[in-house]
Amino acid sequence: MTELASPLLVADAPATGRRRAVTLLSGFLGSGKTTLLRRELDRTGARAPAVVVNDFGSTRVDDPLLASGGSDPVVLTGGCACCTRRADLAAALATLLEDEQRFRAPRRDVVIETSGLSDPGPIAFTIANDPVLKHHYALTRVCVTVDALTGLGSLQRHPVALRQLLAADDLVVTKADLVPAEAVEDVVGHLRAANPFASVSVSADGQLLRSERAPSSDRPRPRMPAVPEESHTAGIATVELVTEEPLDWEAFAVWLSLLVHRHGPAVLRVKAVLDVRGAGPVALHGVQHVIHRPEHLDRTGLRGSRVVLIVRDIDPAALVRSFRTFLGIR
Description:
By secondary structure, this protein is of the alpha/beta class. The protein has 2 domains: 10-230, P-loop containing nucleotide triphosphate hydrolases (Rossmann fold); 235-327, 2-Layer Sandwich (Hypothetical Protein Yjia, Chain: A,domain 2), CATH 3.30.1220.10. The chain is built from 8 helices and 14 strands. Strands 3-2-4-1-5-6-7-8 form an 8-stranded mixed sheet, with helices on both faces. Strands 9, 10, 11, 12, 13 and 14 form a 6-stranded antiparallel sheet that branches. It is globular, with a radius of gyration of 19 Å. The chain starts with 19 loop residues before the first strand and ends with a helix.
C-alpha cells in the first residue's frame, strides 16, 4: 500500500529559509488530534519535530503518550494558547531556540497541538508578529481534525469549532472506522462546502485512508465569523481527578457510564491515564456520549491515575462527590 503524505509533515511545507517550520494542529475537543500526532511521531522516529501541547485543563495527561525524537513534549496547561496561555506559548518556543544553542541540538521543526477550545487565529498572529519568534519560526500550515462521530454537531453548537475549520489548510476527518461510509462522505461534503480551499483527508485510528488536495486558487478564504470574547469558554469548566491508588475498573466504568448517560453532549471531553488494578496503565478517551476503547500503555513507570473532564454547565463539585462515592476515595 502506498503511504499517504501526512498533513503533519512539516518537511513538505513551503521553504522557509532559516526559519523553523511550524504546523498548528487544531480541532475541537476529542476530535483525534493526539492520536493523529502519535502516529506521525511513531512514523518519523528520529526525524520527528519538537512538540508543544496545549491543554485547557491544569492536569497533565497527554505527556506520557507523546515523545518526539526521544524527548518529551513541552506541555502548556490551564488555559488556551490563543488567550490565557498565549504568552506561555511564545516563551515555550523561545526556550526551544535557547535549548538548541545551549545543548547544540539539531534544528527541529515544530508541531503545536492546541487545546480543543483554542482559536487558531491569535496563535498564528503570535508566531508571525512576536519580535523574536518571527525571525526563527514560520507557520506553514494549519491542520484541523474533525470527528466523524460528533464533528458536525460540534460545528453547529460551538463557534470556535467553526473558526478552526475555516482557518484550516488541511482538514482530517477522524474515526472513519466508527461510522458508516455514507456518514463519512456527509462530513466530507460539509467540510468542502465550508472551506473549499483546504485539503481533506480521511483517517481511522490516526492512519490516513485517503487524501485529496484542494484545488489551487488565489481567492481569499471565507472570513471567519466574529465570536464575542466572552463566548470563548463561557460555561465551560475543567474537573481534574487525581488518585495515587490503583483504580477498580468496574467501579470506574459504572461511574463514567452513568455520567455520559446523564449529561451526554455536556461532557465535552474525557481524557485519562489510569492505573488500573491488575492491568497497569491504561489510556482512555471520550467525547460527549462516546467513550472509546481503552488502550493499554507500554509505560511501566506510571503510577496513579489522572482524569480530566471538560464539561459545560455541570457543577464540578457534584462530579467530584460522585467520583469519590463510586471509587471509595476518602
